[in-house]
Design brief:
- With 205 residues, the protein is an alpha+beta fold.
- It has a domain of 121 residues: hpI Integrase, Chain A.
- Helix content is 40%, strand content 14%.
- Strands 1-2-3 form a three-stranded antiparallel sheet, with no helix packed on it. A two-stranded parallel ribbon has the order 4-5. The protein has a two-stranded antiparallel ribbon with strand order 6-7.
- InterPro entries: DNA_brk_join_enz, Integrase-like_cat_sf, Integrase_catalytic, Phage_Integrase-like_Recomb.
- GO terms for molecular function: DNA binding.
- Keywords: DNA recombination, Plasmid.
Length: 205
């Protein structure tokens, strides 16, 4: 894979985990939905599964200090892709940028170069990845990393929630983070994870 594809997929994985985002939410993010501050990034979701009144939801992801920081991954993806919101005035299009509204567009890989010519650059499409494509990326990247398990498009969200529970976050904070409307759904995530990790006989078997 090219470094451009790697940068996009890394941003997808880390934003999905850092924001407990559904695969459909990741696929629907547009450039204008994301704002950056010194200490965090904000993602505005105009529509989401739990937003029945269509009021929109803002996801805040803090800036970290490690290479796993979602904010840094997003900045790297923007820098390498040169993505910029689509300019309505076509006469003033800047040079060397890729105009699109999609935060995570498709990338078309070129054919192999011939006669020792430099390889052509990948082409960034105008349309967003589908939610199915996001799920496929998650599964493929986990397999490539040698991580065992049955992964799906929901794995990033589930992993973020269960990790929060393991770190001792209370249900109120977890519910705010996961944006679940019902505590019962949230508790189902936690109970399934803790059935093994906190089994009474784990230290005795």
């Amino acid at each position: 894979m090219t470094s451009l594809v790697d940068a996009r997929d890394r941003a997808i994985l880390l934003l999905g985990y850092g924001g407990a985002l559904r695969r459909s939410e990741l696929a629907a993010i547009q450039l204008e939905h994301v704002t950056l501050d010194e200490d965090c990034m904000r993602i505005t979701l105009p529509h989401s599964k739990g937003d029945k009144k269509h009021q929109g939801t803002t996801i805040v992801i803090p800036r970290g200090i490690t290479r796993h920081c979602p904010v840094r991954a997003w900045e790297t993806w923007l820098r390498q892709s040169k993505l910029t919101p689509r300019n309505k005035n076509k006469d003033t299009k800047p040079e060397n940028v890729n105009e699109t509204t999609a935060a995570f567009p498709r990338i078309w890989l070129p054919a192999a170069a011939k006669n020792n010519e430099p390889p052509p650059a990948p082409k960034i499409g105008m349309k967003s990845l589908s939610d199915w494509s996001v799920a496929k990326i998650i599964k493929q990247r986990c397999q490539s990393a040698g991580i065992e398990g049955d992964f799906s498009g929901h794995s990033l969200r589930r992993g973020a929630i269960t990790t929060g529970a393991q770190d001792g976050l209370d249900l109120i904070r977890l519910k705010r983070f996961s944006r679940h409307r019902d505590y019962r759904v949230l508790e189902a995530y936690i109970e399934e994870d803790q059935a093994l990790s906190k089994h009474p006989g784990k230290t005795r078997f």
